[in-house]
């Protein structure tokens, strides 16, 4: 019987597959560098502005960074051809989705109980705007590479990048609408993303991200 811990060698050794594996790793390395900056600025400006959506966006960047580290681990060294490593990475990415959802709900409840309202932040607006432009490009690229590699872990990381872009859009919308009294948009966006994160975590655990 073939070793179930190793991916089928002929397919894995094709030049195109190896090229995509390197591309997945490089995309994750590049994403990791930006997410370090994004998370620090998002959390700092979120606390300054009392914006739960901005805070959740900064925390989501940390979760995305964890997913990037997982994909880098997956496509490094002997794990490159390992089916077991793919399963482990896929489930680890699923758990990273689930780390985000309860925090968002708890933080919304805390801010509502304290009466906090989101306030505009020039730095927060600048950073979220950059992410709104760049993260969809990274997310789509990773999901395409993940589909070719049949790697739900890679596709799941791409989904997290797309959620980051949606969060950025929600933050900007919430800050804008808060100026006309629609303060509830900011926490509503955070709760919506908590639900999406939980749902995507279930799909990633089942290995379905690359096919969605």
Structure keywords:
80% helix, 0% strand, transmembrane helix, mainly alpha, 212 residues, endosome, 7 helices, zinc, Alpha-lytic protease prodomain-like, disordered N terminus, synapse
Q: Can you offer a commentary on this structure?
A:
Helices cover 80% and strands 0% of the residues. The N terminus is likely disordered. It has one domain: Cation efflux protein transmembrane domain (Alpha-lytic protease prodomain-like), CATH 1.20.1510.10. It is built from seven helices and no strands. With 212 residues, it is mainly α.
Number of domains: 1
Beta-strand content estimate: under 5%
Give me the CATH superfamily.
Cation efflux protein transmembrane domain
> What is the ordering of alpha helices and beta strands?
HHHHHHH
Largest sheet: none
SS-based structural class? Answer: mainly alpha
Count helical runs. 7
Q: How would you sum up this structure in a few lines?
A:
By secondary structure, the protein is an all-alpha fold. The protein has one domain: Up-down Bundle (Alpha-lytic protease prodomain-like), CATH 1.20.1510.10.
């Amino acid at each position: 019987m073939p070793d179930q811990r190793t991916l089928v060698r002929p397919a894995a050794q094709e030049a195109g597959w190896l090229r995509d594996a390197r591309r997945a790793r490089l995309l994750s390395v590049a994403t990791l560098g930006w997410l370090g900056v994004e998370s620090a600025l998002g959390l700092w400006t979120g606390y300054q502005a009392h914006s739960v959506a901005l805070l959740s966006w900064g925390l989501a960047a940390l979760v995305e960074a964890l997913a990037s580290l997982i994909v880098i681990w997956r496509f490094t060294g002997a794990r490159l051809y390992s089916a077991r490593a793919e399963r482990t990475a896929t489930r680890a990415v699923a758990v990273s989705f689930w780390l985000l959802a309860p925090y968002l709900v708890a933080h919304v409840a805390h801010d509502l109980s304290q009466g906090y309202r989101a306030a505009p932040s020039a730095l927060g607006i600048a950073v979220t705007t950059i992410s709104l432009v760049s993260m969809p490009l990274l997310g789509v690229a990773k999901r395409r590479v993940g589909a070719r590699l049949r790697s739900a872990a890679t596709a799941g990381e791409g989904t997290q990048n797309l959620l980051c872009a949606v969060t950025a859009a929600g933050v900007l919308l919430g800050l804008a609408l808060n100026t006309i009294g629609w303060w509830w948009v900011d926490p509503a966006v955070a709760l919506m993303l908590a639900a999406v994160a939980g749902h995507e975590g279930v799909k990633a655990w089942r290995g379905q991200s690359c096919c969605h």
